[in-house]
Predict the structure.
Amino acid sequence: VPVGGLASEAVAGVPWGIIAGFGLIIGAFVLAVLYATLARTPHDGAQK
Amino acid sequence: VNYETSILAVSIFAAFVLGVIGLSAWLGSRAQSAGGYFVAHGQVGWFVNGVAFAGDYLSAASFLGICGMIAFFGYDGFLYSIGYLAGWIVALFVIAEPVKRLGKYTLADALNSKFNSRGLKLVAAISTLVISLFYLVPQMVGAGALVKPLLGLPHWAGVVMVGVVVTSIVATAGMVSTTWVQFIKGTMLVVVCALVMFLILERGFSLPTTPIGQDEVQSYRKDASGVIVNGSPLSAENQLDTKLRAAHGIGFGSIAQLPDGVRATGPLGPIAFIETFSKSTVTTWKKGTDAAGATTFTPVERKGADLLLPGSSPTFKGVRDDRIASKLDFLSLMLALFLGTASLPHILIRYYTVKDAAAARKSTVVGIGVIGVFYIITLYLGLGAMTSGALDPTDSNMSAPLLARTFGNTLFAVISAVAFTTVLGTVSGLIMAGAGAVAHDLLCDVFKMELSDREKVRAGKIVAVALGLIAIVFGVLFEKMNVTFLVGWAFNVAASANLPALVMLLFWKRTTKQGIIAAMSIGLVGSLAWILVSADTLEKIYGFSAADAASRALVPFSQPAIVTVPLGFLTLIVVSIFTSTGITKPQTSPGIA
């Protein structure tokens, strides 16, 4: 049974693969919030 | 596996469906103009639109397919969750605002905004229709899978029901009703799934009453007299899991061994749940065939830590394979999921329902938040189903509803109704995309039919009915396919056909209409052709054995995106260079390019 690499323990017994997956999902959301908060383009407010 | 029809389940289900149809009928009066019908007047609030994004995107593949894949193969299903969500970053940073600025009703509007080319509109409309149909099939399959246990009806009846309900939603109020159906669905899906996750954590893990032996093979076969299960005719008293339940107090999918030798863990926190699973041993069931031709399910004990590694499922086996083609197949699918999201026509048209680019951006963030929460929940739902003792080993798509049934018939009814609404929300979005492509792009812009606003709406409704009928036929034909697997194809085709054109139009000034038409055509035809001659298709669609399919396949791996997306970019660049006149100007008179 291959145990190691992404299946090895990372934090509190949770494998790296799960940490990486959660990290990517939460990271994507944080990135999106930062972008939506900080980004301003010349087109903002331009109604079609 | 015994599927009993419950009056409660049918009542909740009927209430959901009637509520959705009633809402559509009520909203119908608000969508008389083409702008109202196709894009809800562009006045949907960013928060509602963001949740509707989630309602549009979280399809049967996300809910039934991913939960089923995690329940059967562990981490592999979660890879789909990661890929699906990562794609939203491309949508947010690259596609959202320009598409909102350039288009009006459809993807073809945005692609054609600089050129005014009928040829480009034609190709873009065909691409939208093909991708929407590819995406429709798994949704309809999911609907059929749901009504079987819920209403005791055959698969085809569920497909027909979804087709009829969705057609009535889209034909009454178009994008107005579609938006609200998707908003309600997105909210309910996340709330109900969060509730199931909470119940899973509260229950924790426990062992069967007695250990399941490695020789306890379960089997079924079909012969002239009907279905024979474990040597006796199929009946209410003799289901595939009857022997298991009698001997061990539990059906398919269970914990074989818990850490520290305990028999039950009691309630667990989210981290402790994963940790405990990782240190446990799980009884999974390997599908096979015996000498008499019966389908067999053999118990296989696997370490939890192994199930939390990628590569257990046939789709992702390449991760554990030394062959380069297998690894490319895996990378290709992940690339398709990453790039396909931002290329899906039914997602792109939702950018036209908000008033400006800032609202498009904000609604994308809300969508990412809701979708991200849902995908994290799917891991718990999938692992909970894997150890619930309630799996149907013949149908991975039923894992989530059957998991809910272990908490009582009420929750089973609610989650099945939510799943059904899930299908409704996504299918209505897809049919809207197809209706816009035909009524707006093909009839008005390509065939130059002079349609009034009201006629354009009527044309959209007729197309919606036609697409609904086609979806019903395909939903019946593809009954046995895992819905997540089918959606993978739609992402491959979308990424190959649309993404190179969208990205280069936005970021390369020398892009020409001929370049876009060539890239979309090559991407579309190339990815479709690749899929049709791949080993996966030969095995799962044409019915060849795995060995036969591998030897007959004309391409080295089954997922095309890693080849066809770069091919689309290359085609666009080469054709644009050869057809560029130096300056890209809008044409004054449209013509077939």
Observations:
- Chain A has a mean pLDDT of 72.
- Chain A is about 50% helix and 10% strand.
